[in-house]
Amino acid sequence: MTQNPDTIMAALAGAAGGRAMAPRFSDGAASLVLDVTGLGAEARAQLEEDVRGALLGLPGVEEVRIAMTADKVERTIIAVGSGKGGVGKSTLAANLAVALARAGKKVGLIDADIYGPSQPRIMGNHDKPEAIGKQIIPLETHGVRMLSIGQLVETGIALAWRGPMASSALGQLIEGDWGDCEILVVDLPPGTGDVQLSLLQKWKPAGAVVVSTPQDLALIDATRAIDLFRKLHVPILGLVENMSGYACPSCGEISDPFGSGGAEAAAKVMDIPFLGRVPLRLSIRAASDAGTPPAAGEGEEAQIFAGIAGLLLDQVNRSRG
């Protein structure tokens, strides 16, 4: 049966919203191509279902064959690392992702700390993500899409995984359905082991942010992380000094239990950008435990993370330059 072009396009207009090319018909089968650029897995599945239903409703159409094409989304992967644990790397990564999202970027956050995932707690989302086909669908919270191994395993269970298993798990997170995300912030585990090597060698981050406290011991370990990034040709986008200065809640006097200015001085010596300081504050710790990153709110602490995010974006643009 010969199809009326106006009838066909009218049926597709409501179902495809301009994403469908004109179909071809042969022996009762309709074939067409859908542009699914920027759509997540659920949206793609729904679009396919709507278009299939619309065409099968036309006289003489017994079968619908659909191909999907999409422009490749160019994503900037930013690794957040440290040479040791306990320096606030995960808190910085979470707040950095939120601040970038508030700056208008489409951001994903990957908790690559396979053995000690903390992003579900910091971001306040312990829900288990679903999968469509082989891809895991990130969950959105505070304007950021997130995936963590902590969302996939029971809380408090130790993961006795060897390096290859951990690297495979990281691959599933990075290759999740990130849709139109422009930036993926990857919270690396501390140290310089298999997971770090897998990320740096296979997925080639655009750059790395290194987190350290001001004390000499932490800076020694941060230097090792910087050396690893440099050996694998990953640009250092900047160094952040965390836990920098403590204001007494009673008298307001500032003290420096971890020293002061060490990270900035080290950045200058190593010729890498210094992105800023995050103070040691009870409010930041409490907000992280409560799943409400300070960057998602207002006030001085949100402005601190917004400032670091702004300087980071400047460094990303320069590195592309």
Distance between the termini: 56 Å
Please report the total strand number as a whole number. Answer: 14
Rg of Cα set:
24 Å
Largest sheet: 9 strands, mixed
Outline the low-pLDDT stretches: none
Principal-axis shape equals elongated
CATH top level class name of the largest domain? Alpha Beta
- Beta content comes to 15-25%
What's the domain count? 2
Number of helices: 10
Mind telling me which CATH architecture of the largest domain this is?
Answer: 3-Layer(aba) Sandwich
Give the SSE map.
Elements: H1 5-16, E1 24-26, E2 29-35, H2 41-56, E3 63-69, E4 76-81, H3 89-102, E5 107-111, H4 119-123, E6 131-132, E7 135-136, E8 139-141, E9 144-148, H5 163-174, E10 183-187, H6 194-203, E11 207-212, H7 216-231, E12 236-247, E13 254-255, H8 262-270, E14 274-280, H9 282-290, H10 300-320
Parallel strand pairs: 2-3, 4-10, 4-11, 5-9, 5-10, 11-12, 12-14
Antiparallel strand pairs: 1-2, 6-7, 8-9, 12-13
Helix pairs in contact: 1-2, 3-10, 5-6
Structure description:
- With 321 residues, the protein is an alpha/beta fold.
- The chain folds into 2 domains: 62 residues, Fe-S cluster assembly (FSCA) (GMP Synthetase, Chain A, domain 3), CATH 3.30.300.130; 245 residues, P-loop containing nucleotide triphosphate hydrolases (Rossmann fold, 3-Layer(aba) Sandwich).
- 39% of the residues lie in helices and 22% in strands.
- The protein has 10 helices and 14 strands.
- Strands 4, 5, 8, 9, 10, 11, 12, 13 and 14 form a 9-stranded mixed beta sheet that branches. The chain has a 3-stranded mixed beta sheet with strand order 1-2-3, with helices on one face. Strands 6-7 form a two-stranded antiparallel ribbon.
- A hairpin with a 2-residue loop joins strand 6 and strand 7.
- Helix 3 packs across helix 10.
- The longest helix is centred in the last third of the chain and has 21 residues.
- It starts with a helix and ends with a helix.
- 41% of the residues are buried.
- The mean pLDDT is 84.
